[in-house]
Structure formats: structure tokens, C-alpha cells
Amino acid sequence: MAIDAKLIKLLREKTGMGISNCKNALEEAGGDVDKAEMILRKQGLDKAAKKADRPTGQGIVALRREGTTAALVELACEQEPTTGNERFLALLDLLLATALKLKVSSAEKLLQAASPEGVLADSVKSLIGVVGENVQLRRAVVIEAPAGGILGTYAHFNKKAAAIIALSLDGADAANPGLQTTANDIAMHAVAARPLALHREDIPADIIAKEKEVFLDEVKTKPENIREKIVQGKLQKFYAEKILTEQIFVKDPDGKATVANTLAAAAKAAGGKAEIVALARQELGL
After folding, report:
1. What confidence score (pLDDT) does residue 271 get?
2. So what's the pLDDT on residue 53?
3. Are the beta carbons of 87 and 16 closer than 8 angstroms?
4. CA gap 46, 75 in Å, rounded
5. In the chain, at which end, N or C, are there fewer CB atoms within 10 A of the end residue's CB?
6. Contacts with 64 (C-beta within 8 Å, 6 or more apart), sequence order
7. Could you say which residues of the chain have pLDDT below 70?
8. Domain coordinates of the chain in residue numbers?
């Protein structure tokens, strides 16, 4: 049967599929747009299953902040041009909005949240059918500032890395612009310096065990009575490089002040004290 070009245009606008796909679906559906849309959705799900194992080396790490709450999501795809796709960006916007609304802090839970196509997992599969490549929501996290506290946020210009920190305040003015700037700068520092954790005890024991194993191998030719002392010294250096508060602040002009020192000075200038109580950092593929 002949298919009206207006119906093809309407179906394209609703699904984002190509002209030939829309025409074929309308022919199969006897010109019924709703039935044709369902046919295309099922085709999209089939495409998603076939592409699920294909590598996703590109994508966007996106951050959105609303008051004292902020969300981070990593939406991955196969090719860089896809990150500029209108529907890819629309899905990213929906993921951020939903994460903030529901305060969902895992990709698995976010994918089960309601969307216009059922749940967000269905929206991802639908996008796969449109762009013709694998798309995955890898990570999602929401951070809320504690009562009376503030957030620090930073998203890198390349859209591949971002971070959020939450500060609790003791006497410090939450509205102090210097303190807010420092909080944002510390989030920027976290993106650049790639800390493993906020506190020493947050680093998994197996990682520490592996580091000690390497250090012990490095000092095996040293006298036995000093090996442990050398290993402990190497561990202290490891912590100074990997723990956020112990790292040298990247914007310190003298290269001496730690993140903890920098925050303490800013909080003091704001009339009190501050402590970093939460850290979320995402980098594409890492």
C-alpha cells in the first residue's frame, strides 16, 4: 500500500528512525502510526540485544546541581559523534532530572525508574535503535549536602570527568563566597588529581595489601630490621598521593598546602570549620 509522506514524517519525529524504517513499519502496520511505532520499538529492542556486547569507549559524564543536591551520570556509547546526537542528549537530560527527583544513587536503580517509554532501561534500548550502536548507563550517583552544609561541584570542559564534594560546616557561613569557591576548586582538584578515596579507611583492604606486597618486594635486599620502616614510609607516601584531604592542592601556588589545609583556611575565613563528608568522582571509562 502507498504510505502518505506525512505519516512517515510523523513517525520519524516520534521515533527518530530513518525514512525507510518508518515506511516499512507503516506498510507492515497498514498505515497505523501507533502500531508502526510499536513495530519500530520492538526492532529497537532487538537491535539493543545484538549490540549489548559491543565496546563503548566514548560518551559523556554529566553533572547537574540543584540547590544542595547534585547528580552525576556516565552515559557511554561507541562513537564520539553520537554524544552530540539530539536524542542522546535528551536521554542524558532525562537521566539527570530523574536521578535528582528520586535521589537515585545507582545505575541499576535509575534504569528501573519510570520514563515515557516504560522505564529508563527501555529509553536506553530505544536510543540504541535510533543511533545504531551500543549505549550504556554505566554509573549514577546523587550527593546531598548535610543540613547547613554546602556542595562543591566541577565538570571538566571535555564532558569526560566531573566531581561532587559535600561539606559539613561548624560555625562557617554557608553563604560565604570564598568558601563556596574553595569547595568548587576542591571538586576540580578531585577531577585532576584522581583520589582513590576521601579517607584512608575507605580504600579497600585488598588494594592496601597489594601495595604492601609491591613495597616488600622493593625492599627485599634491605636489612631485615629496617624493611618494615621503609614499607611504612612508602605507605604514607601512597596515602598522601591517593587520599583527597592529604593530597597537595593543585591550585596552591607554593605546592605545599594540602586539600585539608586549604579547606581549613577557607572555613576559618568564613567564621568556622568545615569537613568533607562525601566525594563522588566519575571519569569516562574509569
Report:
1. 97
2. 63
3. yes
4. 20
5. N
6. 70, 71, 96, 97, 100
7. 1, 11, 13-18, 20, 40-55
8. 5-51, 52-144, 145-203+243-286
What pLDDT is stored for residue 50 in this prediction?
A: 55
Which amino acid, residue 115? S
Class of domain 5-51: mainly alpha
Q: Are the folds of 5-51 and 145-203+243-286 the same?
A: no
Strands 273-283, 118-119: pairing is: unpaired
Task: Classify domain 52-144 at the CATH class level.
Answer: alpha beta
pLDDT score for 220: 79
- Residue at 2: amino acid letter: A
Say what the pLDDT of residue 145 is. Answer: 97
Q: What CATH number belongs to 145-203+243-286?
A: 3.30.479.20
Q: Measured between alpha carbons, how far is 238 from 70 in angstroms, rounded to an integer?
A: 30
Question: Within 10 Å of residue 102's Cβ, how many Cβ atoms?
Answer: 14
* pLDDT at position 178: 97
